[in-house]
Input
Amino acid sequence: MPIDSPAIRWLDDHLLLLDQRRLPHQTEWLSIQNASDAADAIRDMAVRGAPAIGIAAAYGLALEARLLGERASLERLAPALERLASSRPTAVNLFWALARLRERAADLRGDALAHRLIREAETIHQEDQAANQRLGEYGAALLPANATVYTHCNTGALATGGYGTALGIVRAAWRGGVLNSVIAGETRPWLQGARLTSWELMQENIPVTLVADSAAGLLMAQGKVDAVVVGADRIAANGDTANKIGTYNLAVLARYHDLPFIVAAPLSTVDPRMADGGGIVIEERDGNEVRQLGGQAIAPADVPVYNPAFDVTPAALISAIVTEHGVIQRPDRDRVAAHLENAR
Output
């Protein structure tokens, strides 16, 4: 039976990924037949968002095993695992999903291995949908009545298995009657807020206003923001959080204006082996992503560019981390460890 979500469709013998580079003006689906196709889609940001990257990688590895048939083994899958693992370095969900597949299929070979990997990828996909819905309910309870939420990047159905992390909180709050509206920062340089978040929310008739990233401070000073809610690509053991570039700026602004700064992510995004944010590898991408906009040059062709895709927000600036298992208030090493222990 197909597993359907707004951006990821598993059809038993291949994977369809909604090409998010084309949104909101075009709807195109990429047919993924093997691990290389999946790695390319992840690297080129046709699929993006930490949970969605992990799900796509899991399906990609399963497809590779199916192609190998009776020759399938974890040894023969090693090159595919390497291609997938190297596609993007920051989002821990990618490595978590691949490690889970290796663990669950360690004793199998051939068609049995492929079958186990497919079932495990499907399970990861389904679990993410359910986890995000629980996360949304926990997070919505943190918002004041009639709240206006500022969010960054895209953390909705497009970025996950089909519901959303930060936008999962937004959805739950809207359905619960406590949300007034959303302010979406454009999120340069890929404009995920402008192209994706505003589009997603408009599809569900949730009031949204798009702003330039640099307007956030003014809006907070004017009293037009009640809380900042963002996602995460990796959360260290002490609560330091890597997310889309510009998130750290928002955390500093929220602290100055005494606003809640809430991070939403499934438990798979927490990396207990990473002691703190200083050890998180920050992906650096092609300078043309900044020099150009939609393929159109907006800067001198030879101007040097520094283009980190993520930044790290210290735990001290985070009011709460929300997972499918509840809320970590004022996260630190002990509270994160306790949350992980209670989730077992």
